[in-house]
Design a protein that fits this description.
Blueprint (H helix, E strand, L loop, with lengths): L7 H7 L5 H12 L1 H4 L4 H8 L3 H11 L4 H26 L10 H22 L2 H13 L3 E5 L3 H14 L4 E3 L3 H10 L5 E5 L6 H12 L3 E6 L5 H5 L2 E4 L10 H24 L1 H15 L8
Parallel strand pairs: 1-2, 1-3, 3-4, 4-5
Length: 295
């Protein structure tokens, strides 16, 4: 096993590959990291009501040689997180946003939450998943981009970037149009679907229809056990940092934009010189719309 797999972050990345019983054990680890670091495997087995053999299979799927390696990895990550939180408190007095905060304090705390969300995203995104997502998009004959509610603005940005690369993308905030497009997808096509909760009914309908048509679903959500995560062929999890008056949905949008930029740039670099030519043509297409420079 490679040293320091990332503990909780690694479990997030692998969650969709686990069986129902393994997910039950993984949920306990994610919700009780301090307790798991002190438990024996027998205690873990008893509290989760699963066999030790199931735990062994879970460890193997996560890439750990034994239970002790998992405990050490989780403890190491928790120590790193606590150290980062302490450093942040010392640096800018971060204690959560309150009505008595000044504009400067709000500024510092919002920046702290944004930076933390992006830092956690680094651990949540699997490099191999990025490569697979890029290959899926490059090989797709059609690509649907859709996000419901506040997620639409973020997916629109991704649509704009992929369009500049000359990819066959479609994006519309109108659910009926998105649903019609999902129905026209074929095997080998793709749908990029974005939802913070992963439970928006209109978006899930698009995911189900895309799968029925044989298209690959690339899902981006903040929740491991969400319906979108279960429906996705490739799933990316965004970090959630919540402060009072500044919800996890807000910070997760920054993480989701970062994930989409990772996917875009992976696609862009795989296109090589052709990618640069396509971007140049896109710039030329709108160059005449810009106001002339003043002399």
């Amino acid at each position: 096993m490679l040293e320091g797999k990332g503990g909780l972050s690694h479990i997030h990345n692998t969650y969709h590959l686990l069986s129902k019983k393994q997910k039950s054990a993984a949920n306990f680890i994610l919700r009780n990291p301090e307790r798991i670091a002190l438990m024996t495997m027998r205690e873990f087995s008893e509290i989760c009501k699963i066999s030790e053999a199931t735990i062994v299979r879970l460890l193997k799927k996560l890439g750990y040689d034994n239970y002790q390696e998992l405990r050490v990895d989780v403890a190491r990550e928790r120590t790193s997180i606590r150290r980062g939180a302490i450093e942040a408190q010392l640096a800018d007095g971060y204690q959560g946003i309150g009505p008595e905060d000044s504009a400067e304090e709000i500024k510092n705390k919002v920046i702290y939450a944004a930076v933390q969300a992006i830092r956690e995203t680094e651990n949540l995104v699997d490099d191999r998943m990025l490569t697979r997502a890029a290959e899926t998009l490059l090989n797709a004959g059609q690509i649907l981009c859709y996000g419901s509610g506040g997620s639409q603005a973020i997916i629109q940005d991704a649509y704009h970037k992929l369009l500049r690369l000359g990819l066959p993308v479609f994006c519309d905030a109108n659910y009926h149009l998105a649903r019609i497009k999902a129905n026209s997808l074929n095997t080998g096509d793709a749908a990029i679907l974005l939802s913070h909760t992963g439970e928006s009914r209109d978006l899930l309908s698009c995911a189900e229809q895309a799968r029925r048509q044989g298209a690959a679903v690339i899902g981006i959500t903040s929740y491991l056990d969400s319906s979108l995560a279960q429906l996705s062929d490739l799933v990316f999890y965004s970090s959630r940092i919540s402060l009072e008056y500044y919800t996890d949905a807000m910070t997760s949008r920054l993480a989701q934009m970062t994930i989409l930029d990772m996917i875009y740039l992976t696609v862009r670099l795989r296109l090589g010189e052709e990618g640069m030519k396509r971007i140049t043509r896109a710039k030329e297409a709108i160059a005449e719309l810009k106001a002339p420079k003043k002399r």
